[in-house]
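DATA CLASS: polypeptide
GOAL: derive structure tokens

***
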Amino acid sequence: MDGIPTRRTNRHIGNTRWTARWQTGRQYLVPPLLLAITLLGCTTPARVEQLEAQLRDQQDQLADQASSLESLESERNALRHQRDLLLAQSDSLVRPEAAELLVRIDHLTINSWLTGGRNTDGQPGDDELVVMIQPRDRDNEPVKLPGTLRLQLTDPAAPKGSRQIGAWTFTPEQCRTYWLGSMLSRGFLFKLPWQSPPTRKRLLLHSRFDTTDGRRFDADLLIHIQPPGRPGPSDHKPLVPPAHTSNASPDGR
């Protein structure tokens, strides 16, 4: 009987001590917890604002990249359009083998020795006009460079408005077939029947040569011919190479 109250007394004393310790610890624990909760409540909105700012920056960067991509796509489409136009105009483009010749050409000449009237039927007077056109480089060497060639023959002594005797135009493809390459001379050789028979001996020949890269060269020559129906000296014919060499290349191939 005496032992039971003693155990209860000891338990009561232990509980009292634990309660006292808990109350004492709570006094020291509660203020830090309250401070942490308070600080957490204050810093959360600031962190949210920082994240929102970062998100806005990323959105701005994405918008800039989208704008740059759109600009690049527009440039690409423009380049494709230019490419298609160039392909459609491929006939007028400069071929790689002609690029060096385009750089080399410097001026245009009409060969005075191989240009003039020619009698082909043995009757008095000349029946056609023979013309040698030579694109030349800076060293005055003939260059086989096809282009658009225009020839105009006029009578400077005729009344104004009736001076033109003939006009001829040759495309680059046609010019290639008229190239003459021989030991005597090189150039584009044309044999042109009269469009309007001349009545005077002295005529003016004008030539215009347009290259495929857009440059223009001009040359003029005052020539002497024997009008058709009028007898002339037997040696009036210009020196024209044989016809079989008319399509030879400059190197004789």
Residues 1-88 form one domain.
